[in-house]
C-alpha cells in the first residue's frame, strides 16, 4: 500500500498505539510494507511535531501528545470502518479508505457517520423483532442526539392528501434524545401558512397544543419554549425490510389544535410517524 506522508504518519502512530511489536524503524518498515528511509523520514516528522520521542534511539515511543492524537484518530478509523463495512464495501478497500476518511473528514461529517453507524447497529440488534415499543429501542441504543425524519398524517384523506397541516408546524427533522437508555422526542415549533379559501390570502398560524396517546389515554405533551417533548416510550415501532433496506417505522396517535389567522381549528386526531 503506497501512502502519502500524512497517511503513513497516521499508520505509524496507530502501530505505536496498538503496540504492533517491533516498533523500530526496521520493524515498522516490515509491518507497514514501506521502505526503510520512508518510515525513518516519517518518524522524524512526527518527532519534530512532538508526537514521537527518540530519547531511546532503538525504541521510539509516542509522547503524551502523540498518544492523545493517536487515540483520536483510532476512534475515527474504527467508526469509518464500521460505516464502510456495513455499507457493503470490501474489507481491503474499507481499510484503505477508512484511513483517508479518518484523517480528512470534518467533525460534522464524522458526527453524521457515527450517528449512522449507531442506527445500523440498533437495526442489527432488533432486526429479528417484527414490532417493539420505543422504550425497547432506546434501551438498546447508545446515548446521543439522533436526527430523524418524520411525517404527521391526518386520520382521513382530504382532497387526495392525508398529510396533516400540523406537519408544517414543526421543523424537520425531529431529534430523538437518549440519556441513560431513556428517550425523548423533541420537535421545534415553527409558524405555518395556509391560503384562505374565502379570500385567497396567505394566513400564518401555529400548533396550539399537542396530546399524545399512551397507556390508554391522551396526555398533554410538555412544552418548553419552542420545544415540544414526547416520551419515545409512547411510540410503537414496526420492522420493515431487510439488511441495508431495513426501516424501523415508529408511530403514535396525537390530538392537537391549530390556529390559522384568526381561526381556531377544532381539535383533530393525527398520526405521528418517524423513520430510522
Keywords, separated by commas or semicolons:
single chain; 276 residues; alpha+beta; Arc Repressor Mutant, subunit A; Immunoglobulin-like; ten-stranded antiparallel β-sheet; 7 helices; 17 strands; 34% strand; elongated; WH_DNA-bd_sf
Brief summary of the model shown:
With 276 residues, the protein is α+β, with helices and mostly antiparallel strands. The protein has helices at residues 5-17, 25-32, 36-48, 64-86, 91-104, 107-125, 134-140, and strands at residues 52-53, 61-62, 131-133, 144-148, 150-158, 161-163, 174-179, 182-188, 192-195, 202-214, 217-220, 222-224, 227-231, 236-240, 247-260, 263-264, 268-275. Helix content is 35%, strand content 34%.
CATH architecture of the largest domain: Sandwich
Number of strands: 17
Mean pLDDT: 91
Q: Helix count, per DSSP?
A: 7
Overview of the structural elements:
The chain folds into two domains: 5-105, Arc Repressor Mutant, subunit A (Orthogonal Bundle); 131-275, Sandwich (Immunoglobulin-like). It is 35% helix and 34% strand. It has seven helices and 17 strands. The chain has helices spanning 5-17, 25-32, 36-48, 64-86, 91-104, 107-125, 134-140; strands spanning 52-53, 61-62, 131-133, 144-148, 150-158, 161-163, 174-179, 182-188, 192-195, 202-214, 217-220, 222-224, 227-231, 236-240, 247-260, 263-264, 268-275. The strands form three sheets. Strands 3, 5, 6, 9, 10, 11, 14, 15, 16 and 17 form a ten-stranded antiparallel beta sheet that branches. A five-stranded antiparallel beta sheet has the order 4-7-8-13-12, covered by helices on one side. The protein has a two-stranded antiparallel sheet with strand order 1-2. The mean pLDDT is 91.
Amino acid at each position: 500500500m503506497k501512502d502519502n506522508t500524512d497517511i503513513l504518519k497516521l499508520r505509524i502512530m496507530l502501530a505505536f498505539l496498538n503496540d504492533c511489536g517491533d516498533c523500530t524503524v526496521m520493524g515498522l518498515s516490515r509491518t507497514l510494507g514501506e521502505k526503510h528511509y520512508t518510515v525513518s523520514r516519517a518518524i522524524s516528522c512526527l518527532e519534530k511535531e512532538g508526537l514521537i520521542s527518540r530519547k531511546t534511539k532503538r525504541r521510539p515511543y509516542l509522547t503524551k501528545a502523540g498518544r492523545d492524537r493517536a487515540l483520536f484518530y483510532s476512534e475515527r478509523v474504527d467508526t469509518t470502518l464500521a460505516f464502510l463495512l456495513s455499507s457493503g464495501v470490501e474489507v481491503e478497500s474499507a481499510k484503505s479508505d477508512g484511513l483517508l476518511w479518518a484523517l480528512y473528514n470534518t467533525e460534522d461529517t464524522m458526527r453524521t457517520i457515527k450517528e449512522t453507524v449507531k442506527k445500523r447497529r440498533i437495526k442489527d440488534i432488533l432486526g429479528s423483532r417484527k414490532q417493539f415499543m420505543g422504550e425497547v429501542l432506546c434501551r438498546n441504543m447508545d446515548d446521543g442526539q439522533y436526527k430523524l425524519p418524520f411525517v404527521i398524517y391526518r386520520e382521513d384523506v382530504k382532497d387526495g392528501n392525508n398529510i396533516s397541516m400540523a406537519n408544517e408546524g414543526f421543523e424537520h427533522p425531529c431529534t430523538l434524545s437518549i440519556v441513560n437508555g431513556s428517550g425523548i422526542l423533541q420537535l421545534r415549533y415553527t409558524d405555518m401558512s395556509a391560503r384562505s379559501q374565502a379570500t385567497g390570502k396567505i394566513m400564518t398560524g401555529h400548533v396550539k397544543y399537542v396530546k399524545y396517546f399512551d397507556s390508554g389515554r391522551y396526555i398533554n405533551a410538555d412544552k418548553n419554549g419552542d420545544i415540544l417533548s414526547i416520551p419515545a416510550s409512547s411510540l410503537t415501532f414496526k420492522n420493515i425490510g431487510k439488511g441495508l433496506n431495513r426501516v424501523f417505522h415508529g408511530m403514535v396517535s396525537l390530538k392537537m389544535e391549530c390556529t390559522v389567522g384568526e381561526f381556531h381549528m377544532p381539535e383533530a386526531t393525527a398520526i405521528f410517524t418517524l423513520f430510522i
